[in-house]
Amino acid sequence: RAQPKNESTWDLIKRTGKVRMGVFEYPPYFLRDKASGEWVGAMVEMGKDIAKELKVTYEPVEVGGFAEAVLSLQAGKVDMNFGLQATPLRATSIDFAGPIYWIEWVTVNNPKFHGKVWADYNKTDVKVAVMTGTSDSLLLSKMAPKATKIEMQDIAQVALAVSSGRADAFTTTVLASMVMKTKNPGLGDFVNPTPRVALPGYIGLRLEDDQRWQKFLNRWAEWNILLGHNETRMRASLKTMGIEEIPSTVSFSPN
Amino acid sequence: MPYKWDFSLVFSYTHFWLKGLGVTLAYSVGTVLGGLIIGVILGMLLLYRRKWVTLPIHAYVEVFRCTPLLVQIVWFYYALPIVLAVELPAWLAAGLGLTLYMGSFSTEIFRGGIISIDKGQWQASRALGMTNLEMMRHIILPQAIKRMVPPFVNQSVIQLKNTSLLYVVAVPDLMYTGSIVVSDTFRPLEVYTSVAAMYFIILYPLTLWASRMEARVDQ
Amino acid sequence: MPYKWDFSLVFSYTHFWLKGLGVTLAYSVGTVLGGLIIGVILGMLLLYRRKWVTLPIHAYVEVFRCTPLLVQIVWFYYALPIVLAVELPAWLAAGLGLTLYMGSFSTEIFRGGIISIDKGQWQASRALGMTNLEMMRHIILPQAIKRMVPPFVNQSVIQLKNTSLLYVVAVPDLMYTGSIVVSDTFRPLEVYTSVAAMYFIILYPLTLWASRMEARVDQ
Amino acid sequence: MTNKAGSGQVMVKLDGLRKNYGTVEAVRGVSLEVHRGQVVVIIGPSGCGKSTLLRCLNLLEAPSAGTLQVGGRTIDFGAGHTTPRGRDLARFRARIGMVFQQFDLFPHMTALGNVMSGPTIVKKMRAAEAEAIARDLLAKVGLASFGARFPRELSGGQQQRVAIARAMAMAPEIMLFDEVTSALDPELVGEVLDVMKQLATDGTTMIVVTHEMAFARDVADDVVVMDAGQVVEQGPAEDVLLQPKNPRTASFLSRFHSTMSERKG
Amino acid sequence: MTNKAGSGQVMVKLDGLRKNYGTVEAVRGVSLEVHRGQVVVIIGPSGCGKSTLLRCLNLLEAPSAGTLQVGGRTIDFGAGHTTPRGRDLARFRARIGMVFQQFDLFPHMTALGNVMSGPTIVKKMRAAEAEAIARDLLAKVGLASFGARFPRELSGGQQQRVAIARAMAMAPEIMLFDEVTSALDPELVGEVLDVMKQLATDGTTMIVVTHEMAFARDVADDVVVMDAGQVVEQGPAEDVLLQPKNPRTASFLSRFHSTMSERKG
Ligand SMILES: Nc1ncnc2c1ncn2[C@@H]1O[C@H](COP(=O)(O)OP(=O)(O)OP(=O)(O)O)[C@@H](O)[C@H]1O
Ligand SMILES: Nc1ncnc2c1ncn2[C@@H]1O[C@H](COP(=O)(O)OP(=O)(O)OP(=O)(O)O)[C@@H](O)[C@H]1O
Ligand SMILES: [Mg+2]
Ligand SMILES: [Mg+2]
Q: Which chain A residues are closer than 8 Å to C169 by Cβ?
């Protein structure tokens, strides 16, 4: 798989006839179907659609988590990563395309804590768990900068921190929290703290001079988000996980 | 386009790094000392060859030695409050796993150091009429400690690196700080390399000192 | 609401567990053997007291001993392609870090084992007219190996647990499998406890065997 | 010299003392009396139980059966009897000095520190007082100027003399010596034997296991011959060494007689 | 017995041999000749360089200067000369047998295995052939039935006899003995000296460092007296031992004379 030096991602995809995407266990974005062993999930469906548009094969590449997804991109082991948040600082390290969806944030409290508005969380003695590397952390810093942030490596630990009383609440996307709730009915109800916030999700790319790959993805994202294809994919993915009742307030497009 | 290394971003987090360094050092020193104390007490108790003393100690040593430290930390931090309704402060719960892990290795090191002292020293001390405690304190330990230093330092080096497992309970040590800086900057290679350099700067002098000690014991 | 323990979910992933177990065992055995070979060669070379031989070896040992294994694995897998344009397959890159880490500890263990053999044995072998190689093979190593077994097993125990760091390159070992099952079931306590039990079942017999060996050396 | 025997206070008395290691009967019923100021030499072939007997005397080994009396203290061993433990055991041992073949000096202490160790650690004597005693004793064993040296800086003979001074510093009621010259080069044996002769002259009660027949003949009041864990002959030194009655003693001694005559040659 | 000297082939010849350890001059210019079948005994006070000299002879230590001739091979030492290395050095050593104070048997081999080790490992001799030689030699040192025992199952004297057999198994041109009885209990010394006497009678060329004056007197052709790294007196055994000319020799020997006379006394 010798990659000639300075070959652009676009040329690489054309030459090898495949597009590689980083995946890791993070339902409902990416997850492995336990029966077939195939990678499925909303982002996987998007990746497959991109491959179809390009008439190349789709190749999921398993990476360890968010940090490793970035590493894989920089090391040329994948060509794109889904579900990243594009901060200006991050944009000095990788390129972004998109956005591909918009998503709202909710909080889940442990039974002893009763936060309702972001102001309830914005206190130094309130411990809020988030998952490292995700926009959960960014969002919390924006909405409740004074809260004590507890960054956990994976989403199950976030849930555990709250259910064991080590944290008062966690905040995550409405999507992830629905999944957590179905798997962990013992968790408290989720709260939609006001003011309501939503953030866009992007595709991460290697920094490069050749703009063709980024341009292509930007057009693809625009097309799919405006036509509502990505929202459909999100809902379909939740459905496969047994989540049929999606609150009417939830939307995956800019509001 | 080839990767452009940029360490300047890493350095802009100096304040974070210093805090992470502090946490790593504090937990390392604390849990190494705690483990040492456990090792001294249990290693000593192992000299009494009564089954009811040695069996539980061996069980403790083996359970902690043969299971992942990560799981031990998870247990002390999350499971203890759930199972026993014992609510330990976070810093203590996090440190307990590390301490007991270090303790299990220290026990073996301590016992090994003591039994490595020539039998003649024990015999001569007893013949002079020393009690076990007097013998330990004045004759055996002063000699054994020198021999325990190298394996103990080796284990401390491993322990200092093991503090990175505190990430599971979100204690902001050096490695955890690293992963936060990574998620901020998306510069994992620069960040991890810097973290490695910091570990090296702390640990290398320690191993150097240990091998000096070792050379001195050989004499 | 009290926590309801439920291990049944954990058992429904038997197929996954077996695969993870296989990966952990394969990597452990492979990297321990690789590290052993490195240790034998470098430990032997350290006996030649030439600076230009010992200095690079010490540098290797200290760099790998004093930096986090996690970073080493990251380096071999992610940084090598960037820096040297050397593209290693995941299994090799991951294995390389683990192997070299084990190698650095093994080198010290091996050297220690060899120099622990009484000087008289070297002298007697030389006086009989043995070359260095003959002496090593027939006289020194057969005696030294017995003494190396306990520290080597101890390091292998640590190494087997270290394979869990393979998660950074998404090699699905036991611990990684655990975290996948966790994110599937949201049952971290049950899953991690089961993982610990599996590690224990593998490692305990190993340490038991090592302490038997140790007792035999004492004789 | 035998006039010492029988007279004086009984310092050590053994009655039917036995010691088994598992199925090995190392000492098989030894009875013995040692009086104040007496020097008793024990001889016998390798493995006959000499060391075991000495080690039983200061309870480094717990005898399996029999009675042991040291100073005023009588202890019975065997089923139904409890042996001293802990501080009691330590106090008992403090009354008996013992010197071993491997001198076993404490390597982390100077010669002076070694000699002071008993008084300061066991008797909790003040350092100044212990040092005075230790310096006296070092002078007595001819090492007055060696107090500041560490064991590794001393020759074997010097180390053994420090070991003797260390045992003497506890002012023991009786001194036990177990082949204290066996590990020494022939040149160094003389120094140590001279120190022991001096102790004997000073009236120290001593039980000595040795292979140095000349020493036994010159210094011993009584000689005890052991074989296979038992005493086979016992009596005044001249009688036992020169006209042994027991055939085992005779055969054991013949080796020494021949060496001596060979050297006379 | 001195008739052996002067006659016969020169087996070992030293000329101005020196050995420094840093600033310590352990051997300071020793010249010596040993002829086929001769037994040379080296005596001298502790630290005078006896062991160093022997170790230089088979290049366990590299001499600092001088010339060494063993068999047909002459080697010069010092600036500008290269000493044998690797396989060449090993071959050189194989021609010289050496036995040490600490017998240093290989603990993982039986007595037979120890004796066979040289022939099989160094000479690559077939096992059957080596075993025949080894069994012969074990019989010669009186251990015919002990071949299957491991060193730890043998007494010190037996171990030392195995060590002698092990060295002999290489059929060396010359045997070096360095205080081979010093670590033994007096009772066991005799066995080993007897074996060495037998070797001397058989015509083995031997250089022996020992404190056993009776052995020196009975077996040595020549006696060499060293002091402070130099040879101070040298000549036929009777002359040197009984009428020493050098005052140092006389004072060194006086200790032994007194021991002998004391034992006679
Ligand atoms: N700890 C032990 N366990 C088992 N057997 C022992 C132990 N110590 C000594 N023996 C056995 O007891 C017997 C007497 O041993 P002891 O050391 O008392 O003999 P000795 O007369 O001192 O011999 P030597 O002159 O060689 O020192 C021997 O058969 C010995 O093997
Ligand atoms: N490896 C060494 N390094 C430095 N000095 C040494 C070394 N080996 C021996 N010496 C010194 O060389 C001198 C001669 O030592 P050597 O062992 O040859 O004496 P020796 O005559 O064999 O004494 P002994 O009768 O005690 O065995 C001594 O002063 C000794 O301290
Ligand atoms: Mg004995
Ligand atoms: Mg010597």
A: 64, 68
C203 touches chain B (CB under 8 A): yes
Q: Is the Cβ pair C189, A160 closer than 8 Å?
A: yes
Residues D263, E262: C-beta atoms closer than 8 Å: no
Q: A186, C180: Cβ pair inside 8 Å?
A: no
The token pair at D18 is 């036995």
Gap between the Cα atoms of E65 and A136, Å rounded: 79
Burial class (CB in 10 A: 0-12, 13-18, 19+), A72: buried
- E strands of chain B, at which residues? none
Residue of B19, B180, B183 to mutate, interface with A, max A Cβ within 10 Å: B183
Q: Which residue has the tokens 């993870």?
A: C20
**Nearest CA residue ID for atom 14, ligand 2:** E49
Peptide bond into A195 cis (omega under 30): yes
Q: Mind listing the pLDDT tens digit of every residue in chain E (265 residues)? A: 444 444 578 999 999 999 998 888 999 999 999 999 999 999 988 788 999 999 999 999 999 999 999 878 899 998 888 888 888 999 999 999 999 988 899 999 999 999 999 999 999 999 999 999 999 999 999 899 999 999 988 888 889 999 999 999 999 999 999 988 877 776 678 888 889 999 999 889 999 999 888 888 888 999 999 998 999 999 998 888 888 888 888 877 876 655 544 443 3
Domains of chain E: 10-95+174-264 (3.40.50.300), 106-171 (no CATH)
Taking a C-beta distance cutoff of 8 angstroms, is the pair D43, D66 a contact?
A: no
DSSP SS3 for E58? coil
Give A65's contacts in chain C (Cβ within 8 Å): 167
Residue E106 to residue C143: CA distance in whole angstroms: 9
Phi, psi of E16 (to 5 degrees): 60, 40
Integer Cα distance of D217 and D221 in angstroms: 9
CA-nearest residue for atom 31, ligand 2, is E47
CA-based nearest residue to A143, from A193, A85, A185, A90: A193
* Region for residue E198 given its phi and psi (left: phi exceeds 0; alpha: psi -120 to 50; beta: otherwise): alpha
Whole-number CA gyration radius for chain D: 18
Please tell me whether residue E222 adopts helix, strand or coil conformation: strand
What separation in Å is there between the alpha carbon of D180 and the centre of ligand 1?
16
SS3 D183: coil
Question: From residue A201, how far is each of A60, A97, A102, C54, C195 by CA, in Å?
Answer: 19, 9, 6, 53, 34
Q: What backbone phi and psi angles, to 5 degrees, belong to E233?
A: -160, 150
Instruction: Inspect the interface and report whether the beta carbons of E90 and C118 lie closer than 8 Å.
Output: no
Tell me which amino acid residue A198 is.
Answer: A
Question: B94, B77, A186: which is closest to C5 by C-alpha?
Answer: A186
Give me the residue from A74, A76, A180 closest to C186, CB to CB: A180
Do residues C154 and B32 make contact, with C-beta atoms less than 8 angstroms apart? no
Residue B192 touches partner C, C-beta closer than 8 Å: yes
Name the residue with tokens 């000499």: D50
ipTM of the complex in this document: 0.80
In whole angstroms, what separates CA D61 from the centre of its chain?
15
DSSP β-ladder status, E10-21 and E24-35: antiparallel
Say which of C65, C66, C82 has its CB closest to residue B3.
Answer: C82
What tokens appear for E24 in the block?
């310590």
The single-letter DSSP state of residue A149 is E
Residue D44: φ, ψ to 5°? 155, 160
In the stretch 116-145 of chain B, residues with CB closer than 8 A to chain D read 118, 120-121, 123-124, 126-132, 134, 138-139, 142-143
Q: Which of D45, D46, D187 sits opposite E211 (nearest CB)?
A: D187
Neighbours of chain E (3+ CB pairs under 8 A): C, D
